[in-house]
From TrEMBL, chain A:
CDD domains: TM_PBP2 (cd06261). Residues 88-277 form the ABC transmembrane type-1 domain. Keywords: Cell membrane, Membrane, Transmembrane, Transmembrane helix, Transport. This is ABC transporter permease. The chain crosses the membrane at residues 28-48, 92-115, 127-146, 209-234, 254-277. It holds the Pfam family BPD_transp_1. It is a multi-pass membrane protein. Coiled coil: none annotated.
UniProtKB/TrEMBL annotation, chain C:
CDD domains: PBP2_NikA_DppA_OppA_like_15 (cd08492). Belongs to the bacterial solute-binding protein 5 family. Keywords: Signal, Transport. InterPro entries: Peptide/Ni-bd (IPR030678), SBP_5 (IPR039424), SBP_5_dom (IPR000914). This is ABC transporter substrate-binding protein.
């Protein structure tokens, strides 16, 4: 859900306040397993079902879950299991895509702030302030209104809210490098300042960015499926989870399977991303505090 | 003297940055207005295709759309300074009236959600911080689910079970306290999950501190330590995070109000966005920015109350 | 309500998990005395699926605005569901033989709720205001057709003139869109009648008490009302003392308000819930076929490949309409055979079963038209081009009745005969521009109005230009004269004949594929009595009482 803070907000900064922890091995193991399954399903849903997600069969309408259809059928007789499986690709793709866009945008903005001098820094950071001041879902709504619906536009719309968080990390890492003496020394040797900073900043910032990005994927998926649920994201007949849920909404009482399974799919997927992301975060902070 | 530097100076700084954020939001909103594809007049007419060219020209003139873009921007700023947020394309009413009429139900919903979130988070953290691993793992799992489950889905499940099947709560609307319960829970759950995680970690960190040992040595009981010392110590991250999350509640309200058929800012936002009613969308962007600025100011002031160190410097 | 086992299980698990919540279920007994006398008093809530964007019936084209404003605005005449006109604010009327001039004798005892008397000047003020471009009327002005002007003959006699014969005027004059606001309100609040509320003053049985956006509109009874339309069961004040319209777009929620007694009447019960709602004790479901245009697909005869009649006919015969409609609407909506619905005057019943599903014929026609090749996905090709037709999807907020889902079934049918249907989605402006600019292959719409004159909108070539509704883009002298003839006469047989020919011809030309006849489904609690529906199937609350 979008009420959850985006990466880079204090929640992430507070995370290092760690205390003695129960071993997380079983959870992590389960999450890794889930991650592998999700990836497989997204890449090749056909491996897991022989049914077509769009195969209309008017004679098999609204069948409850059973041996023929594990998750039942929808109002046009389409197999819900197949639709949920095939729905993994657009759902995961939008999560990954928007995180990638946000990472790229954040990196560019962060570097621009660090290298753009006083005014560049001021402009970028004030822009980040404004973006952070607006609820992520409102930003995404605004972007969808301008860009229109569809998968690619949805990725951009969701990404915008995440950019400032990443930008701040890159900027912080960049400033560390800028203020260290060796840059000045290298500049004295005739190397170009910007090339140098980019070359040193990116490897340093990569770790925290990737860790935050993993948690970000889960958040982005929630955000994207919310928009699809509202009819503003991925459009039917593409079987995206949020859109499936929206279509099953009217049937929650008469055909619960239409709404329950896509919801479970989103939840499991986001939990997986969160667990993996947090594990990475812990490992990373441990390593960097050592 | 000390009051002035300790309280007024940060407030002044805060106001300056608030002004900057608001101006930025206004600029972004106006840019968005220019970028929206499609003819505003058609947006206004909706599905109706029978309006004559004369009617269209009249509408154009009425909303000042026949002016050049720079002139429109100047008028827009001028009106903004005078507190005039313009006319809704779709509803053909003043935007300020539309928004102020929707504030109360959303404010109630957000207050309800924050109450749910804080109560759940504090009780979960108090009960499980530093306890047996099984208990902590169970609580952690619940929190994880609360954070990860899409709130629109949770909302529909709660609605189906408690309203449609068990008839415990009213099905929709904003009539009385009972109709506020399910929406508040739906909106508050993910926040409760996140708060509980951070709070527990902060409390566990505090429980490991020397001052806790001192307190225990003085004979303060387990519960006393938790309530008096650990919780207080953990309050700063709690307040910070609560402030940040409160800002994003407005986004969550879009979904929750939609699901529970409640009026409010969120429902208005969705309607305005899907109908490209840009004067309303712009005004809502400004309102959210203002809300965010207010919340962060309150959070900053709360620090002074909670942490005596900040007061005495 | 019956719970399936897993749903019940979830219910209990969640109930146990949330121990702090206390229950307060409301058991409601509804014993209905037969042949009971109407009782005055009580308050009724009516849950509807759409909320007006504008409450001014003179401006808004929305159905819901008409349905709501009917409680506040009275009309000159009243049309019953059989199409007969009764006196209302006009005690009697005469129509000139050339159908260009209508004279009304008004009742003399009618007052607006602000005390202003209703007279000829009020009629003129309202009609002139509707026709004035400054009002920006989006629908009512079109109901006035070729309006020339209104003349006050004396205080209680008024004449409305048209510049061309205009037979549909009586029907139009009976709608709430041509209802009357107090001239005072019209002058003082012309800009904010859209906002509804107390500014909207009429002569109707209810007074507009207040409006909360996103929630409800509330009406209270007009105690002085004594001019109910002839043909109504009574003529005094309404029985209900309070009437509330609740706006609930989500259909599951709407049904929930009825079963939990938060609403006494709901509209637009989704088809899939009709069966379970019928089994619910204490609740009655009414199904009313809407008059006007059916839900039709319009085939654009000016773009390839639909400029070939064989391709159009193949599409018409290649869709298994009966099965698709039955699956998506659970047998609640009947399939359509004519562009008009059976409850519309002039409907041609001879079309029934005349063009049934025939995939073999569709395949044969496409072969004949030269679409004999096949591409990798099985779509037909001709000279390397794929047989593909674009049918744009409306923006999500305009899609009703799960028409997008029905569209997917139609897509699947046509795929079987080798026709590819693409469904891009545009914003509403682009959609209308492309659709009515003739750039799309297929368009879909239904048009609710109890008047066969809608055929003029659909098929007259004058309706092709900007602002028109003719999405077949087919110019044909016979269709033009037939639709114009229907407009120029009040003789029922002559009209039926012209309109019957139109329906026959557009099916033969395969410019139209009627899909289903929209049905208004209303759920009401058994404590509600006397609920009637006007010719548009809108609920009329004037005679409603509660037991």
């Amino acid at each position: 859900m979008s009420t959850v803070a985006s990466p880079g907000r204090p929640s992430a900064r507070l995370r290092p306040l760690r205390a003695p922890r129960a071993p997380q091995r079983p959870g992590m193991l389960l999450a890794t397993l889930a991650l592998v399954v999700i990836a497989l399903v997204a890449l090749a849903p056909g491996l897991f079902t022989s049914q077509s997600p769009t195969g209309v069969r008017i004679t098999d309408v609204l069948q409850p879950p059973g041996t023929a259809h594990w998750f039942g059928t929808d109002q046009l007789g389409r197999d819900v299991f197949a639709r949920v499986l095939y729905g993994a690709r657009p759902s995961v793709l939008v999560g990954l895509g928007s995180t990638a866009i946000a990472l790229a945008g954040g990196t560019v903005m962060g570097l621009a702030a660090a290298l753009g001098g006083r005014w560049g820094d001021w402009a970028v950071m004030r822009f980040a302030d404004v973006v952070l001041a607006l609820p992520p879902l409102l930003l995404a709504l605004l972007a969808v209104v301008i860009l229109g619906t569809g998968e690619l536009n949805l990725m951009f719309a969701v990404a915008i809210a995440f950019i400032p968080g990443y930008a701040r990390i890159v900027r912080a890492e960049a400033l560390v490098v800028v203020r260290s003496g060796y840059v000045e020394a290298a500049v004295g040797l005739g190397l170009r300042r910007s090339v140098l900073i980019v070359r040193h900043v990116l490897p340093n910032a990569l770790g925290p960015l990737l860790v935050l990005g993993t948690v970000g994927i889960g958040m982005a998926m929630l955000s994207a499926s919310s928009l699809s649920f509202l009819g503003l994201g991925v459009q039917p007949p593409v079987p995206e989870w949020g859109a499936l849920l929206s279509g099953g909404r009217d049937f929650f009482q008469s055909a619960w399977w239409l709404g329950v399974f896509p919801g479970v799919a989103v939840t499991v997927c986001v939990i997986t991303m969160n667990v993996v992301g947090r594990y990475g975060q812990e490992r990373f902070t441990k390593r960097s505090t050592r | 003297m000390r009051f002035r530097t300790k309280v007024l100076a940060p407030v002044a700084r805060r106001l300056a940055s608030a002004l900057a954020v608001m101006t930025g939001a206004a600029a972004i909103a106006f840019a968005a207005l220019q970028l929206v594809p499609g003819d505003p007049v058609q947006i206004l007419l909706g599905q109706n295709n029978t309006a004559s060219p004369e009617v269209r020209a009249q509408i154009r003139a009425r909303f000042g759309l026949d002016e050049s873009v720079p002139l429109q921007f100047l008028h827009y700023l001028d009106h903004l300074v005078h507190g005039d947020l313009g006319q809704s394309y779709q509803l053909q009413q003043p935007v300020s009236g539309l928004i102020s009429a929707q504030l109360r139900p959303t404010a109630q919903l957000m207050a309800g959600a924050m109450t749910v979130a804080v109560v759940l988070a504090v009780s979960s953290a108090l009960l499980t911080a530093g306890r047996r691993p099984v208990l902590r793992a169970a609580a952690g799992f619940c929190e994880l689910v609360a954070v990860s489950a899409p709130s629109y889905w949770v909302g529909i499940v709660l609605l189906t079970v408690f309203s449609f099947q068990l008839h415990v709560f009213p099905v929709a609307g904003d009539q009385d306290f009972a109709s506020l319960v399910l929406p508040s829970i739906t909106l508050g759950l993910p926040i409760a999950g996140l708060l509980a995680q951070v709070l527990r970690e902060a409390m566990e960190a505090a429980l490991g501190q020397p001052f806790v040992l001192t307190a225990r040595a003085r004979g303060v009981g387990q519960t006393g330590v938790r309530l008096k010392h650990a919780l207080r110590h953990a309050a700063i991250p709690l307040v910070t995070l609560t402030g940040w999350l409160a800002g994003s509640l407005l986004g969550g309200a879009v979904l929750v109000e939609n699901i529970f058929g409640r009026p409010g800012i969120g429902a208005l936002t969705l309607q305005a966005a899907t109908n490209k009613d840009m004067p309303v969308v712009i005004a809502l962007v400004l309102v959210s920015a203002l809300f965010f600025v207010l919340i962060s100011t309150v959070v900053d002031l709360l620090y002074l109350l909670i942490d005596p160190r900040l007061r005495t410097g | 309500m019956q719970l399936s086992r897993p749903a019940r299980l979830t219910a209990w698990v969640l109930a146990l998990a949330t121990l702090t919540l206390t229950g307060c279920g409301s058991g409601k007994s509804s014993t209905v005395a037969a042949n009971a006398k109407p009782v005055a008093g009580g308050s009724l809530t009516y849950a509807v699926n759409t909320e007006p964007t504008c409450f001014d019936a003179h401006i808004s084209p929305q159905d819901i605005t008409g349905e709501i404003d009917r409680n506040v605005l009275d009309s000159l005449v009243s049309e019953d569901s059989s199409g007969t006109f009764h006196p209302w604010l006009a005690a009697s009327w005469t129509v000139s033989s050339d159908l260009q001039s209508y004279t009304f004798d008004l009742r003399k005892d009618v007052t607006f709720t602000d005390g202003t008397p209703f007279d000829a000047a009020a009629v003129k003020a309202n009609f002139d205001s509707i026709a004035a471009p400054a009002t920006r009327s989006q629908y009512a002005s079109s109901l006035l057709g070729p309006y020339k002007g209104t003349t006050v003959v004396d205080q209680y006699t008024v004449r409305v003139d048209f510049s061309a014969p205009f037979a549909p005027f009586l029907q139009a004059a009976g709608t709430a869109y041509l209802g009357f606001y107090s001239p005072k309100a019209l002058a003082a609040h012309s800009n904010n009648l859209c906002a509804g509320g107390a500014a909207a003053i009429g002569t109707g049985p209810f007074v507009f008490a207040g409006y909360t956006k996103g929630q409800s509109a509330v009406f209270t009874e007009n105690p002085n009302y004594a001019w109910g339309p002839a043909g109504a069961a009574h003529s005094g004040p309404a029985y209900l003392s309070k009437l509330t319209f609740r706006f609930l777009p989500d259909s599951a929620t709407r049904v929930g308000t009825l079963t939990s007694s938060q609403a006494q009447v709901i509209r637009s019960v989704p088809a899939e819930q009709v069966a379970s709602l019928k089994r619910t004790p204490g609740v009655t479901v009414k199904e009313l076929e809407q008059p006007g245009g059916a839900y039709n697909l319009w085939l654009n005869t000016t773009v390839a490949p639909l400029d070939d009649q064989r391709v159009r006919e193949a599409i018409q015969r290649g869709i298994d309409i009966a099965a698709d409609v039955k699956a998506v609407y659970f047998g609640v909506y009947p399939r359509a055979w004519s562009p008009l619905t059976p409850s519309t005057q002039g409907y041609d019943a001879a079309l029934v079963n005349s063009w049934a599903y025939n995939p073999d014929l569709a395949n044969r026609l496409l072969d004949e038209a030269g679409w004999t090749g096949r591409d990798a996905q099985g779509y037909r090709t001709k000279n390397g081009a794929v047989l593909s037709v674009e049918w744009p999807l409306l923006p999500a907020e305009y899609i009703t009745d799960q028409r997008d889902v029905l569209g997917q079934a139609i897509q699947a049918d046509l795929r079987k005969v080798g026709v590819r249907i693409t469904r891009p989605q545009y914003d509403i402006g682009t959609y209308l521009q492309r659709a009515y600019g003739g750039k799309e292959g297929i368009l879909d719409s239904s048009w609710s109005r109890d008047e066969p004159d809608v055929l003029w909108l659909f098929y007259n070539s004058a309706s092709i230009s900007a602002g028109g509704q003719n999405a077949t883009f087919y110019k044909d002298a016979t269709l033009d004269s037939l639709t114009a003839q229907g407009r120029a006469t009040l003789d029922k047989t002559a009209r039926d004949q012209s309109y019957g020919k139109v329906q026959q011809q557009v099916i033969d030309l395969a410019t139209t594929v009627p899909i289903y006849n929209p049905v208004t489904i209303v759920g009401e609690q058994n404590s509600v009595h006397g609920l009637t529906f006007d010719p548009n199937d809108w609920a009329v609350f004037y005679g409603v009482w509660l037991s």
